[in-house]
Structure prediction request, 358 residues.
Amino acid sequence: MTCTIRIENLTKTFKGHDGGTTTAVDQVSIEIEPGELFFLLGPSGCGKTTLLRMIAGFIDPSQGRIYFNDREVTTTPANKRNTGMVFQSYALWPHMTVADNVAFGLKIRNLTKTEQKKRVGEALESVQMTPYADRKPTQLSGGQQQRVALARALVIKPDVLLLDEPLSNLDAKLRNELRNEIRRSCKEAGITTVYVTHDQKEAMSIADRLAILRAGRVEQVASPADGYYRPHNRFVAEFLGETNIIEGSAHERDGGFLVETPFGSLPLPHRDASVGDRVMISVRPESWRIVGLDHGAAIRGTVRSTVFLGESTHVEAEVDGRIILAMVHGRRGLTAVPAVGAPIALTTDADEIAIIDQ
Ligand code: ADP
Ligand code: MG
Prediction:
């Protein structure tokens, strides 16, 4: 079954030992589409796990509602929601073989032995663990254990798959490999998936859409590209990657729309501001172009440092007493960047610029 997850005004308040309260999740409303791979992304403590566990049914909300399609599940017990869950810690049973771990959910659902065998075979195949069916979890690497945990969640054909920091215990290379496999498995099975992480690269690389959370609230829901290039506010802009925040005021000059600052001007997307507005903009380091010092729509400063990293060169320019970070890709970094101490002018295109809220 394909499943829409609708979350309305969901709030969770915890009472502390000292009598104080923590609002871990604060009036969250999200609609997740059937078959979507949706991320909850934010720093540690922002309420991701609490929100996920309310969707799973392990935590009762203080307020608000959760729907799977048209069925309200706000207070439905976890084992009646048909969700599969994968944790950071794998949570495999150490005394059972891989095959038995995966079969467990089918056993308690009273499937026949033949059906169990078939489904376990398919699930292990889908995570490329068929040769390890008879091993114990302790005889597997971390990545293999997490594959088994994924197979165990998928084998019950859940309506909703929930993953809480599933790759946090693995090394970088394996994380990259496994995240692509997780996406492939979810998409092949067509399961609506909610994936929690604090790692913006992990989220951006495989998400259909992501919700960026701060202190229990949703700051923005967007596709990875829109979140990155069209952040609504400073928190989202900075959380999704390196960026440069610049303030100025919107002006019209020679039919062009610009943001003017004491150290130069830059083109501005016209639709997003009116003449005279104070604006704050976010420009990604890789969006800059180095131009001639007489360029009419550029900011000017002095090269403070350059670092050659192979595929790119990082340039720090001191502009009006602060640092602007620029990135030049490829070999051009060796020739296009002025020497340390020399003046530099930087510009970009209007559609590379996002006007943001504080
Ligand atoms: P995340 O998964 O984003 O790191 P959590 O959902 O685990 O965040 O926690 C969000 C906030 O709620 C934190 O401030 C955390 O300390 C608090 N919190 C989580 N669970 C409990 C609990 N059972 N009792 C009290 N406070 C909790
Ligand atoms: Mg967590």
In short: The pocket of magnesium ion (ligand 2) is lined by residues 48-49 (CB under 6 Å). The radius of gyration is 25 Å. The first strand starts at residue 5 and ends at 15.
